[in-house]
Amino acid sequence: MDRQKRAYLYALTAVLLWSTVATAFKLTLRFVPAVELVWWASLASFGVLGMLVIFGGHLETWRAFWHRYWRQSLLLGAINPFVYYFTLFRAYERLPAQEAQAINYTWALMLAFLSVPILKHRLSRYDVIAGILGYSGVVIIATHGEVFSWHFASPSGVGYALLSTILWALYWLYSTRIDGESVVILFTHFGVGVVLMSGYLLWREMPVHLSPEGMAGALYIGLFEMSVTFLLWRRALRHTHKVASVSNLIFLSPLLSLVLIHFIVGEPIYPSTVAALVLILAGLIVQQIRTETTV
Prior knowledge:
This protein is mainly α. The protein has one domain (3-294). The protein has 13 helices and no strands.
């Protein structure tokens, strides 16, 4: 199999797995609170990443990485997985899965806006148009299509979902300043996150036992949302000769996710969600056009 076909295989596998995570979030949160789910899923991810580091021969690389970047890792590990996933799961507790996952896709738009103060980038007209389209979709979701009433069905849910996009964008922006193997970086950040979450749970004297359903969901999320899928996606980008052709596959994920949410979670798909998702995806496509024209 040539490199490009291998890249498509990695990318499609990642997209298919990402399409399942909104459903996994919603189902698992029926059995376990958000903060406990973050702990268990992060622990599972940390274990898998640890095995990849050890058996992949990256242990010495990790030691050198920690010695160089331990201060940055403390901050980034606090953001992801701890604060980011706790915030995201709180959004899923308060919103239908279809709405939470649609808003979450606006993180790429937030990335462009936050890159202005952090990386000193300039906003282009494409970024502005993308932002207008994407956040118009958020307003449609927040009001269930009654945009002129400004009556928000779940202000806290939308707030948590938007905050999660800020946290995720911040994590990626500051991660760009760090050099290292992807698996080593993720392993380090998840190690920090697990330690911080363990301290938080002990301080709050919260139980960490799970039902079999909760454990299965936490393991699935830890594997296919937090760790393995990102490594597959990075590998796809590393193998491809055409980054744009692989990157465009990500737009399949929210559409497949809606199908799974409807048939597995049992949510009726609202017309407002479809309209909002069209606007959000249109914004992401406009942003993609800007990226391609500036490369």
